[in-house]
Design goal:
two-stranded antiparallel sheet; 7 strands; mainly beta; five-stranded antiparallel sheet; single chain
């Protein structure tokens, strides 16, 4: 049985926002399908729980109060159209320039 793996909609370095919750962030890694713990997945209320067979994104995220790391399904992300950079203390570990809603990956980082 062959499993179809979808292509990720968003690239590393893209600034996105959550569809339901008030936070935004920059993508620093992508999993082609869910790759977190079952405990994490089950902690999401069932009516909001995303399907596992889609890309999941690692974000350097921020809201009005905090900076943190988030793990978000593709179905819950939208392009951030603010044009504003993300204020996260780890940005410089992964990225350099910010232009037009995207960060450029540092040369020393890569997969």
């Amino acid at each position: 049985m062959t499993q179809l793996v979808r292509s990720a909609k968003f690239d590393i370095g893209r600034v996105v926002r959550h569809r339901l919750h008030p936070f935004r962030g920059v993508i620093y890694d992508v999993d082609p399908t869910f790759s977190n713990s079952e405990e994490w997945w089950l902690s999401i209320p069932e009516e909001l729980r995303p399907v596992k067979d889609q890309p999941f994104y690692h974000l350097l995220a921020e809201n009005e109060e905090h900076s943190y790391v988030a793990y978000v399904s593709e179905q819950n992300l939208l392009d951030d159209t603010s044009g504003m950079p993300v204020n996260h203390p780890e940005i410089e570990n992964y990225f350099c320039d910010f232009l037009g809603g995207n960060y450029a990956l540092r040369d020393s980082i890569g997969h």
